[in-house]
Amino acid sequence: MADKVYVEVVKFAAKDLYDDKLKNRFVDLATSTAEKAAASAGFTTDKPKEKDAKGWSINGSLTSVGPDKSGKKFVAKASAGVFTWPAKSLKAMPTGEAGFAVEPGEKVSPGDADQLEKTATTEAMKAALGWMKGKKPE
Known about the structure:
Layout (H helix, E strand, L loop, with lengths): L6 E8 L8 H18 L14 E13 L5 E13 L4 E3 L2 E7 L8 H23 L6
Parallel strand pairs: 1-2
Antiparallel strand pairs: 2-3, 3-4, 3-5
């Protein structure tokens, strides 16, 4: 059996959040969602001990969590930049999005926002991991 390819998941960044008090919560959830997705896709997040090892790095971001411009939809958007590791050369920038209809001004619970953010992150990671599968790290 071939060794698993290493994927470094860098702590996600976040901007344009509907409630800045939830930033740490969203960042931690997105980062752990990305780590779980990498492991379930057959990659490892355990840093290799070999000096000449190569792998991938995911630099993710929650680019938006909140109501859209019309106020009729609550949306979460995520991106997952795929970089070589350790060289950090950008190779792909997939995105994911999830949302549901709301009434203008309607309050959204942190739990519902968590689920949206997790879905958006999962969608971005599916695309990133799909791109990485079958490609040899450089």
